Structures
1.
Amino acid sequence: MQFIFARKITLGLLCSTWAIAQAKAAADPTKIVGPESCGNCHKQEFTAWQQTHHYKTFEDLHRRPSAKVIADKMGVQRIKSEGACVQCHYTSQGTGAELKPIAGISCELCHGASKDWVRLHNVKAMQAKAKEAGWIAPDDVYALATNCFQCHTIPNEKLVNTSGHAAGSPIELVSWSQGEVRHHFMSGAKNVPNTPDRLRMLYVVGRVVDLEYSLRGVAKSTEKAVYAVNMAKRVVAAKEKVKAIFAVLPKDELKEIIATADGVALKLNNEAAITAAANKISEGAKKISSTYKGSDLAAVDPQIPPPSEYKGPVFHP
């Protein structure tokens, strides 16, 4: 295991630039129309979302004592409108001084700011154009996964080291998306389970994206402290999960992903090399997501979490 930290250097910027760039690409606040616009057509999905922690954070995060402790340590007076809190915990709309949070973690933080595609995506003949305009469709598992992991890996060293904020969540894509977050109504009025093929793709791509984003966290680490140590440990754990998948699913893409992760040193002052490795792993994850079918991944079934491990209750109308 390569786990080397060379020397201390100064703390980085409040928000890491790679996370801001990716989050903005997915949810440009100037193009946010708001969850109610989605709910006009996706009524069941909207109702399911209203039962989730993603929805409730808008009303309760700033009231939590633990959040106030973190905010005080970061010099944040208004959790809903200042600092790094807004980046991950809220959906914001507008620009400049007019930028304001309008909801918790909502539709457009997962599926893309929708101003340019909201009138296109439900028309089958227009869905290609909708994707070109920024729609992240449910079949784009890689893009959906990155929107989860860019926040659940906490892309902010200073936040973790200064305030005691957790360095990340123990997110696994199947168990975290099939519980209270599930909103699968397209085939009817029931919030139906996803197919085994869908779960296989979520599991494999999710494990690879976990490795990718854990590496991105290490790349931005600047001092041997809680954040750097936890992100490096996360890389090691994520790599072992990918190796377990490769043991039953010996695909070339997974072999290259593992070799890439094994070949980069987890040390401070190695941002370029670690980021290059993460980018290469990203390409492998995209290839798996776009070229394989779930049926090609059936060998991983014993590794996929069962419903008893899903996070939160599934909403049923």
Note: DSSP finds 15 helices and two strands in the chain.
2.
Amino acid sequence: MTPLVSKSLRIAALTVGAILLTVLTLAQTSTHPSPPCQALTAKPNPLPTHKPAPCHIRLHPETSISLGAFAQLTATRIVDAPYNFTTASMSPSAGVLGTVRQSFSPWLGYSLNMGYTRATERATDNASLGSPYAVNNLSIPANIYELSLSYLAEKHVTPRLSGFVDIGAGMLAFLPEHRDAPATNLLYYGVFSPPVNFRPLGVGGVGIDYLLTPHLSLRVEYRGQLYKFADYGNALPRYLTVTSEPTFSVVYNFTHPK
């Protein structure tokens, strides 16, 4: 494993670990609310005339799993750098996303996300040099995996409709299709077998859940990923880019949302 990959893995592991530790610490504290939701009186009234104060901390967190499909749409980066690659892009593709969520209160929860898509990364050199070899393209198809952990804030708007936002960090793994066979049509580098690449990832999203039954929901959300393009161990551009993932999911709720 190269020093760059090792460093990326350490950064992502520390980031995910810090988020998980913070969420679990806050969750443990929040499950023992003080003061209680309804204050005790000296003489209990068997027929109370007032409703108890609402509880904002759930002793039993809402837990759910979901499986969805998304469209991977990555922004193309163009940088003016003569005699070198000047564009980096990713072909649009479809993917799948699995999520595990727990919500302890409207403003305290977490989600664990696992995603997969298959796309082709492309890089192109400067076409304005006037040389017969000025336009050269590099294309590397790869399987792309996501593992991320996010802080979750969720609010029930109606008995059936709830909205949420989440933000977190994780890791992307780029596994080239032909990493054990020579790649062709390379600019300046001849032939090489691109290795697996890991990229630290920032992720965030916003969406809604609609409850169909006590245990079944539909989810529509927008997810955004912030990371650098894979360079596959060569002098390819590592431009910072944003991937948009509009996602539609089916959700199973282990606990009935209140």
Note: Helices lie at 3-30.
3.
Amino acid sequence: MKLIPRKNGRFIAAVLTVGIVTSTTALAQPTGTVSGHVVSASGHPVPGAEVRFEPATGGEVSTDAEGWFTVSGLAPGRYLLTVRAEGFEAQSAEVTIEADAESSLRLTLPPLLAALDEINVTSSFSINRENPVSAVALSQEELLELPHFGNDLYRALAYLPGVSGNDTTAQVHVRGGLRRDLLLELDGVEIFEPYHLKDFQGVFSIIDPNMLGEVELITGGFPSEYGDRMAGVLDMTTLRPRPPRICELGISMIGMWASGTGTFGDQKGSWLASARRGYLDLILDFVGPEDEVEESREGAGPQYWDLLGKVSYEPRPGHLLAFHVLASNDALDEEEREIEDGYPEYEFWDTSYGNHYFWINHQATLGSRALVGTTASIGRVDRDRLALGEGFGYDIEIDDERQVDIAALRQQWSFQPSDRHYLKGGLEFHQYDAEYDYRNELAPEDASSGIHAFAGKFSGNHYGLYLADRFRLNDRLTVEVGARYDDHELTSESHVSPRFNLVYAARGDALFRVGWGHFYQSQRPHELQVEDGETTFRPAERAEHRLLGFEKTFSTRKSTYSLRIDAYQRVMTDLRPRYENLFDPLPLYPETSDDRIRLDPADGLAQGVELFFARRGGRKLNWWLSYTYATVEDTIDGVDVPRNIDQRHSFTFDLSYRPNKKWSLNAAWIYHSGWPTTAVSGEVVENPDGSTTIRPVYGPLYEEQLPDYHRLDLRAGRTVELKKRGMIEYFIDVQNLYDRSNVAGYEVDERRFMVDSNGEVIYTPKEDSWLGIIPSFGIRWRF
């Protein structure tokens, strides 16, 4: 080492001093900060996007889980900022940094030109765990933040335009269709009656929403791969597990659950599993009798559980094999004695319902342009219902055992010969074996005892074949033309269903959609309403869909707005008879109620206009609203009669607020016009023995209207990150926050009539209301 001469020491010290002073001055130079929000065209945050500056700032940053980034310590001046994310076009913006100031900007990333197989040609609502780009897509986070009693996915769907339901059931109606008109699929397999507590119209679904990765609700004009239903499709896909392994334990006011996802074999394999158990039976035992007039409540009460599992493995590149299982069971063992309006009543239930499915999926990629998927499944849906009832004016006994076994095979293939041409097709086979053993003994006080019984077995095969051609006429116009052929052995009929869909991408992020098609719906072997005396199967019902749609997104500096308008018309013909209860919305024994009627519509018409408008991308506050004007009517004996779910006006407003990353608040307000009802009066009838009774007289069917319905729901959640591993989430959900008494129907029996001094019959209705304020809460631990 060479020593420094003493004579140069002062010079070097001076140089060092000047350098230190200069460096200190440079470090003290004022700097600025820039923050930004990166969102997709629909306003959803884009996490993990790379943010680069030119000139370079010495490193890169990425957006967080909510699409935000912040960079500080930037020297004043102009920078070119570029953002890149997978699946989106890169975007650049110029930003000016000022000393001691913070600049903010918002970048919207348009999606790359979608491959033909990814273009959504239908009128649907997509729920996607990744980054949905459709203007009306809902992220899974948005869906789960919606208030929904019991943490149930189906209940959250009821907030969407064109979808309606009631307070007690998870089942929904799509654009005025019956509940049976909606096709339900999970990973390529149709699921029948997937509900818990069927004695009460199906209160919860049997599918854990936390295990779903993508959900698509198609409300009309669905493509040719979907068949044998005529109103809509709910297509659900389970998660694609990725590292690291995630497990979850949770408990709520009505049940508990455990779930997990993970990978194995160097990520060639993956698994997911979920198990849930409801304990309403324990709650009822704890609560005891409902009021002071109830003498006893005995039995185990409602019990239910469900299980969902999937194991997938990639044996070699281009091949994926997956095994699935879905199982559920419900049981109700209950006995009640109480005093109702001064009369003793006795009710007894001993029921059991089961849903069990097992299926295998195989997907094979053939080259770079072809894909073949094959699914083989078996399933069983059964019920065992024993119900006894005795009270004012009735004495009933129902013994109902049913079972249907389903075996299905489906193969779907797709081939894209060019960037402008996409072909898809498939075939499917279903075998049904249904068995009935039904007995209903009803002994009204004013009639002799009667017994209706039926026992029988039915088998039927369904063959389906479809083909569709999707082609891009230019960079903006995409057309899909397809058709289905369906053959049903049970009723010896076959049908051809043409389908047409068109999407035009205009300038300025606007989309126009046109849809048209024919849709047939058969009566499956297990759908025979033997409880109402039906013993023969009817031909398939038919619907013609006509749809027009418009979507538009536009951005401001701080948020993105999405607008969607849909107009639809569904013309229904060849409708089969159906049975309804005029006044009681929740009959425990529907087939024995006095207000049970048969409807024989010749045809029907559902039409309406739906508007969806959303504001997303706000750092704390976001909202969306929808409005629908709709009618649904059946032609019965030459008269147009509204269906009992007809609601001319419906409105939903949802507001979500995130004050920080730990808290989330969501409020949803629902309004719709009152559902139709039927006027009631009474007349005095003289009996053969000279005595008199009062007989109800019904007015024109569904000509009256119940009061308007509205309620406010609230959901609050808090997330706590744990130091070692995982997180804990608390949530509370309140349905009908201001305890609105929404009228559901009326109780009509002899106790509601009286004769005044002038001999006139006076009817005093007793209202039945939907549920009042219902709080629920839960806690989940994810690790």
Note: The CA atoms of residues 99 and 213 lie 45 Å apart.
